[in-house]
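Lab meeting, item 3. Inverse folding demo.
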């Protein structure tokens, strides 16, 4: 059996631009664009790489970073839905230098995944990023011709990535087999290449899946394994199949039959392990494997080392399944599985967390602290003020320009009272601004009477404005 250290799709990704399979036109365009950045006079600050899945769009970006010494700052526009997310992550990266590299390249992956209604403001934030950036911006899309992306297209260099031919995919598969010292039937490789439909990433993953299970590549094995893997199962069925697996390759194959992200699959397994496994020692071993998978996932998030994903996947699937040794019959019991409570809770609290993050950002700008520090050390005291001192809360709300929904997030008990004070304070500020503006005296109007007594107009002003508001409060 082939020992797996890192996924082949990562192991065999191109190190330089010229190593990309085909895409000669794209290579020439990208090199010219990078030269314009090196000279400091880019005609277009952003490039939009578009083409079918597996044609080399992301691989091109990674090759650029390795060859030209850029630090990659990546975000998926399908995952970061709001304009504030794009502004916070991408815009800061575009204006500052990297820690370990003097140059940065910003990658916005899958920009065609931004929807018009749900992601209101995201397109405008991307356009603002392109306008202000001091570093190259690359966006990828499968379909760039959506009408919503027209402003982005107008601001970007369009680079097309063509679908790879069967022969081009086949040649790379042969090279991998040679490097891995695998016995490969050419008909089997042709089957994989044809089935991939030009998706090189899919073809490499298919080849690795067959090699993992058998150590050799034959047409019968390819048809048997890939036909089983083609079916995408419901999460409940995937978890059940993983726990019932008896071999490492079987557990990993079952884990691949889902559209769930690795961290989501881990939550599904975590939620349903105690329902399926009855023996305490088996359960302890299973959670030990799952906790190690969680450690790897955490390191991937912090460092971006996706090479660790292979270990995390193996631990959460095979590591858990093969932990059941004392009461093997328990994994074949039928039990009703549950939807992960953490995912359900995150969905239910998404809007509240968005409000919390926005408030923390507003406070952070004033006190020069990070969002997380504000959430941990400042917001609890702000909540106490809003619950117990509506007048002071109103001053804070006006100073930070908080919306009504933000005020209601900070206090439920005194929300109406705080909002009433906010309206009074804003009205007082407006009147103070009007009063401070010099009034134009029309011809024929007598000047104000001099003397010790105050004029009626002055007395009226004293009854309004900020001074009057603060006297009342």
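The presenter then showed the designed sequence:
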């Amino acid at each position: 059996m082939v020992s797996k250290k890192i996924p082949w799709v990562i192991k065999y990704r191109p190190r330089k631009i010229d190593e990309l399979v085909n895409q000669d036109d794209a290579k020439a365009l990208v090199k010219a664009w990078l030269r314009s950045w090196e000279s400091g006079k880019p005609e277009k600050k952003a490039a939009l790489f578009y083409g079918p899945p597996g044609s080399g769009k992301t691989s091109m970006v990674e090759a650029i970073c390795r060859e030209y010494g850029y630090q990659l700052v990546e975000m998926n526009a399908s995952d970061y839905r709001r304009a504030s997310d794009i502004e916070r992550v991408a815009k800061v990266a575009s204006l500052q230098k990297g820690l370990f590299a003097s140059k940065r390249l910003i990658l916005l992956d899958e920009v065609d995944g931004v929807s018009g209604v749900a992601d209101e403001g995201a397109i405008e934030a991307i356009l603002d990023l392109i306008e202000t950036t001091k570093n190259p911006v690359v966006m990828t899309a499968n379909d760039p011709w959506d009408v919503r992306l027209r402003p982005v297209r107008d601001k970007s260099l369009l680079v097309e990535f063509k679908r790879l031919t069967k022969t081009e995919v086949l040649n790379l598969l042969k090279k991998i087999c040679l490097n891995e010292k695998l016995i490969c039937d050419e008909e089997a490789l042709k089957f994989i290449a044809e089935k991939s439909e030009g998706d090189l990433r899919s073809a490499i993953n298919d080849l690795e899946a067959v090699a993992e299970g058998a150590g050799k590549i034959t047409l019968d094995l390819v048809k048997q394994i890939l036909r089983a893997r083609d079916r995408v199962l419901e999460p409940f069925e995937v978890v059940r199949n993983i726990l019932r697996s008896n071999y490492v390759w079987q557990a990993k194959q079952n884990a691949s039959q889902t559209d769930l992200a690795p961290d989501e699959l881990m939550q599904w397994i975590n939620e349903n392990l105690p329902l399926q496994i009855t023996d305490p020692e088996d359960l302890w071993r299973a959670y030990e494997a799952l906790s190690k998978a969680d450690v790897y996932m955490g390191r991937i998030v912090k460092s971006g080392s996706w090479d660790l994903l292979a270990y995390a996947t193996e631990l959460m699937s095979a590591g858990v399944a093969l932990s059941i040794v004392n009461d093997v019959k328990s994994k074949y019991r039928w039990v009703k599985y549950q939807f992960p409570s953490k995912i359900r809770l995150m969905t239910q609290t998404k809007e509240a967390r968005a409000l919390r993050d926005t408030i923390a950002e507003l406070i952070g700008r004033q006190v020069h602290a990070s969002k997380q520090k504000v959430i941990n050390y400042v917001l609890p005291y702000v909540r106490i003020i809003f619950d117990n001192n509506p007048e002071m809360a109103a001053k804070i709300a006006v100073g930070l320009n908080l919306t009504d929904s933000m005020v209601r997030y900070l206090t439920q008990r005194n929300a109406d009272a705080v909002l009433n004070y906010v309206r009074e304070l804003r009205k007082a500020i407006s009147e103070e601004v009007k009063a401070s503006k010099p009034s134009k005296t029309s011809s024929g109007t007598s000047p104000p009477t001099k003397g010790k007594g105050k004029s009626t107009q002055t007395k009226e002003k004293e009854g309004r404005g900020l001074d009057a508001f603060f006297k009342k409060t």
